[in-house]
């Protein structure tokens, strides 16, 4: 069954079609959640929350944007909400979050993830969408509902901040 047909059937409440649609897009949703949240456990929980929201909101999807754009917007908004909840509920140092990631991830990804975790969520999100997911400026602009020019300037700022974090870590001579 084609993705368009799965989408149409899912919008009409077909749970089997929705399960197949979710199965197809799950790796993309999970990757966004993992990159933003910084650890697997939070990403898995958040991915479930994202899919619940998608299921509940799908009948209202009008197709004004591509389904993937809409899906990533739901994912981004859900992640941002979770990050706000996290900061309100507890002030966990990022080093504690990294301890979980250390056991689960390879060294190169861990270093990048540690640095990404230090960026503000908006900068982290744009970097992930552009440099990890490979989205165009226009796709990112549609997902975040901002101008492509704003995407470019925020991406430049995010890359500059990431570079500064990397240089600072190297100057301190500490292993991330």
From TrEMBL:
Gene3D superfamilies referenced in this protein's UniProt entry, alphabetically: 1.10.1740.10, Winged helix-like DNA-binding domain superfamily/Winged helix DNA-binding domain (1.10.10.10)
Keyword DNA-binding appears in the UniProt entry: yes
InterPro entries (UniProt xref): RNA_pol_sigma-70-like (IPR039425), RNA_pol_sigma-70_dom (IPR014284), RNA_pol_sigma70_r2 (IPR007627), RNA_pol_sigma70_r4_t2 (IPR013249), RNA_pol_sigma_r2 (IPR013325), RNA_pol_sigma_r3/r4-like (IPR013324), WH-like_DNA-bd_sf (IPR036388)
Molecular-function GO term, any one: sigma factor activity
Keywords for the protein's UniProt record, in alphabetical order: DNA-binding, Sigma factor, Transcription, Transcription regulation
Occurrences of domain RNA polymerase sigma-70 region (ranges): 21-88
Biological process according to GO: DNA-templated transcription initiation
Organism: Carboxydocella sporoproducens DSM 16521
Protein name in the entry: RNA polymerase sigma-70 factor, ECF subfamily
UniProt xrefs under NCBIfam families: sigma70-ECF (TIGR02937)
Annotated family: Belongs to the sigma-70 factor family. ECF subfamily.
Residues covered by the RNA polymerase sigma factor 70 region 4 type domain: 110-162
Entries under Pfam families matching the protein: Sigma70_r2, Sigma70_r4_2
């Amino acid at each position: 069954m084609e993705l368009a047909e799965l989408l149409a059937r899912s919008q009409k409440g077909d749970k089997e079609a929705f399960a197949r649609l979710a199965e197809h897009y799950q790796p993309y949703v999970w990757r966004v959640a993992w990159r933003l949240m910084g650890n697997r456990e939070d990403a898995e929980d958040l991915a479930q929350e994202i899919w619940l929201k998608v299921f509940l909101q799908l009948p209202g999807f009008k197709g004004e944007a591509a389904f993937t754009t809409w899906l990533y917007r739901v994912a981004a908004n859900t992640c941002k909400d979770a990050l706000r909840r996290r900061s309100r509920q507890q002030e966990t140092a990022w080093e504690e979050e990294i301890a979980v990631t250390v056991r689960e991830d390879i060294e190169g990804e861990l270093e990048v993830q540690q640095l990404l975790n230090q960026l503000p969520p908006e900068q982290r999100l744009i970097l992930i969408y552009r440099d990890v997911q490979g989205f165009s400026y226009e796709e990112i602009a549609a997902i975040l509902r901002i101008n492509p020019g704003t995407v470019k300037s925020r991406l430049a700022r995010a890359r500059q901040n990431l570079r500064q974090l990397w240089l600072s870590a190297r100057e301190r001579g500490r292993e991330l």
